[in-house]
Amino acid sequence: MRLHIPPVAFLGDGRHVMFTSRHIYILAAALIHLMLGAYVTPVPARAGRVTQMIGSTLLVAAAVLLMAAFVYEPVAARGRTLVSALGLFALFGGAIIHVLAALLSRPAEPTPSVEADL
Questions:
Q1: What is the pTM of this model?
Q2: Domain chopping of the chain, boundaries
């Protein structure tokens, strides 16, 4: 953003906010990738691995879309377009799919038996 001509600090409020908000979207995508890299382990079941792959694919697509929105939307002087909206939806969907894959892969906890208490 330092190399932008004119400097981003001298842009109007609307364009400055667009650059800043799109920058935060990219940061959110990067942080989700960092968290997944630190905590996610492949699920042993094939269905769980496929679910994780779908979530990861959505997250990579989200990062690409959000970077494209960062370049395209402020220059085009347009508000939110389909590019950033799809990027945000893909980011949310990919994160939720990873959470579901983790929850579904956990072993079931044994339920307490009534007979054991007697």
A1: 0.74
A2: 8-106
